[in-house]
Amino acid sequence: MLKIAVASNDGNSVDEHFGRARAFHIYEVEDDGTSRLVEQREIKPGAEGAHGSDAAVEQLSDVNAVLAAQIGPNAQGALTRRGIRSFALKGPVDRALASYGKRHKLLDVAIPGLPDGYSAEKRCGGGCSSKGGCK
């Protein structure tokens, strides 16, 4: 069983930017793709009193993967260092969870010659700047 955090405004669509999400829907997902919502986790402000990717990474340290509409490179790096996979995608939550549940073993395989944590999904909607922010 996997624990997946989803950035969603309504619980139906992956539609929120990782660093702007004030809450994440946490699901348990089985290898056959079935899932169940276990909690909605509010992201409490970080040390500087602001919501953001650092606060979210810290408070999602118990999940296996994160799904969000956009994830900046700094957040992706912080998640990867904690062993958490991250995927930037948009669409229905149930479909994304079923797909990841059925395919996570393939996605988790390290590809020789590529850096740890690299995946084709690691992008920020094509709009990330070199300073780590999304446009």
Write the layout of secondary structure elements.
Layout: E1 2-6, E2 13-14, E3 23-29, E4 35-42, H1 53-59, E5 65-68, H2 73-81, E6 85-88, E7 91-92, H3 93-107
Parallel strand pairs: 1-5, 5-6
Antiparallel strand pairs: 1-3, 2-7, 3-4
What does this structure look like?
The protein has 135 residues and is α/β, with parallel strands linked by helices. It has one domain (2-107): 2-Layer Sandwich (Nucleotidyltransferase, domain 5). Helix content is 23%, strand content 24%. It has 3 helices and 7 strands. It has helices spanning 53-59, 73-81, 93-107; strands at 2-6, 13-14, 23-29, 35-42, 65-68, 85-88, 91-92. The chain has a 5-stranded mixed β-sheet with strand order 4-3-1-5-6. Strand 3 and strand 4 form a beta hairpin.
Mean pLDDT: 82
- Estimate the helix proportion, in percent: 10-25%
Number of domains: 1
Query: Which CATH class applies here?
Result: Alpha Beta
Order of helices and strands: EEEEHEHEEH
Low-pLDDT sequence parts: 117-135
Q: Sheet bearing the most strands, described?
A: 5 strands, mixed
Structural class: alpha/beta
**SS strand fraction:** 15-25%
- The CATH homologous superfamily: Dinitrogenase iron-molybdenum cofactor biosynthesis domain
Rg, nearest Å: 14 Å
Number of discrete helical segments? 3
The CATH architecture name reads 2-Layer Sandwich
Total E-strand runs: 7
The CATH topology corresponds to: Nucleotidyltransferase, domain 5
Query: N- to C-terminal separation?
Result: 35 Å
Shape: globular
